[in-house]
């Protein structure tokens, strides 16, 4: 490493705050103009940085690899929680949660208390099952209970033969079914 000039030359007790590891040299002279030189290395450790990667989407029963990354000096990392994950110590583990799940990547410096975390959300779409038969209600409307449809945040269009149009009306309580 190159030697750096002290930020405050001539001061007997200088204060230095380097952004990177730096070696400072000190040279002193006595009354006879004899000199002595010494050096001091100040090691600057980089803070840990965690990036859990982009959110993922899967269908129930599938697996997906997470794309985590970690940076810093002398670090270790791990994923939490440990459920439905093949390796908590890998930056690219394969996960298979049965429901929506959030994983946290923690990156920790091994010598001091610095820790960084980041989260990735795994959206799990459930299998949709619609009945193959139903009976209309006395009000003229029909209610279908379509299992798994409540796990899809987007609208699902329905087609009405009575009005020859497609529309979607989510129920107030998903377990009660979709009214059209």
* Principal-axis shape: rod-shaped
Number of domains: 3
Radius of gyration: 31 Å
CATH class of the largest domain: Mainly Beta
> Which ranges are low-confidence, i.e. pLDDT below 50, for 5 or more consecutive residues?
171-180
> Distance between the terminal alpha carbons, to the nearest Å?
74 Å
Continuous helix count:
0
| Class per helix and strand makeup | mainly beta
Beta-strand residue fraction: 35-45%
Give the gist of this structure.
This protein has 180 residues and is mainly beta.
Describe the structure.
This protein is mainly beta and 180 residues long. It folds into 3 domains: 3-42, no CATH class; 49-125, Immunoglobulins (Immunoglobulin-like); 127-180, no CATH class. The chain has no helices and 15 strands. It has strands at 3-4, 22-29, 35-42, 49-51, 56-59, 64-65, 69-71, 75-80, 94-95, 101-109, 115-125, 143-144, 158-160, 165-167, 178-179. The strands form 6 sheets. Strands 5-11-10-8 form a 4-stranded mixed sheet, with no helix packed on it. Strands 1-2-3 form a 3-stranded mixed sheet, with no helix packed on it. It has a two-stranded antiparallel ribbon with strand order 4-7. β10 (101-109) and β11 (115-125) form a beta hairpin. The model is unreliable at 171-180 (pLDDT under 50).
Task: Summarize the topology.
Layout: E1 3-4, E2 22-29, E3 35-42, E4 49-51, E5 56-59, E6 64-65, E7 69-71, E8 75-80, E9 94-95, E10 101-109, E11 115-125, E12 143-144, E13 158-160, E14 165-167, E15 178-179
